[in-house]
Fold:
Amino acid sequence: MLHLRVVCPAERTEDVLRVLRAAPGATHLVLLRGAALDPVGDVVEAEIAREATDEVLSELCRLGVDHSGGITLETIDTALSDAADRAEEAAPGEGADAVVWEELIARTGEESRLSVTFQAFLTIACLLAAVGAVTNSAITVVGAMVVGPEFGPLAAVAVGLVGRRWDLVRRAAFALVAGFLLATGVTAAATVLAEGVGLFGPGVLDQGAQQVDFVFQVGPFSLIVAMLAGAAGMLAMTSAKSAALVGVFISVTTVPAAGFAAVAAVLGRWDLCGRSLAQLVVNMVGIVLAAWLVLVLRRSGSSVGGRGSRGGRATARREDNGRPLAKG
Structure:
């Protein structure tokens, strides 16, 4: 279940209570009159079954509470309550199958930003991939896959395309392009330095790389694996099963391809560099395409964000101000 906290003006409190009382998956309703100081108003709290959350958020946002007050969501790990059990049974569908669109938009919106942390992880991942390339170590390449943070912006592109949130698409695309350019640039510089101090010779890639040739071997299975990974990743994000994302990271060769391309370019192996970049593009397109398809199928006729065009613009303003609506 999810814990919902609503801060609203006193004149909207009864409307909020009416929405929550009518929701089949809501329980543990609490009202704290005058408890909110900024903005001034009342605080209403409740526990809501995940499968009923999206409709409740839509109703609350139609009341304008997201503008005049605030709405916060938090995940509840354990709820020992007969009332909570009844609420989950009354809510339609299964919690594992429910998509909370506001939660998804807030999560992908946060992960789509070009932050110092994102760039650091991406650069380290590319450097690991470069080491794997020159040492012919598949294990090191797999380590680079796990470290790579690129699935967040790729998922944000898919969410933005489905919800027509072009601000999210632009921000995520910028994070990917700028992030990979900087990471591969640092990797190329590190390769030049390593070659200069004699860590490896200029013909290191000519000696065979049987263990890591999957990085630059582009073929039909590259797209198939990327699409399967993208579908699994988006299912994991929309069903709150984040542990499955690790499997996505070690399935596709986005970061390893970028790292291998940097090494190959420095060593003058432009054929391998071109094939690695092609692998990178194929994997990224496949992930976004599959993630988009999963979201389209899971939307089931409901609008992304559950708030229509007005709510979408409001969410965009909040994200641009660094204050996403919901945290899952």
User: Anything to note?
Assistant: The chain has two domains: 2-98, 104-318. Residues 104-318 form one domain. The longest helix spans residues 166-196. The radius of gyration is 23 Å.
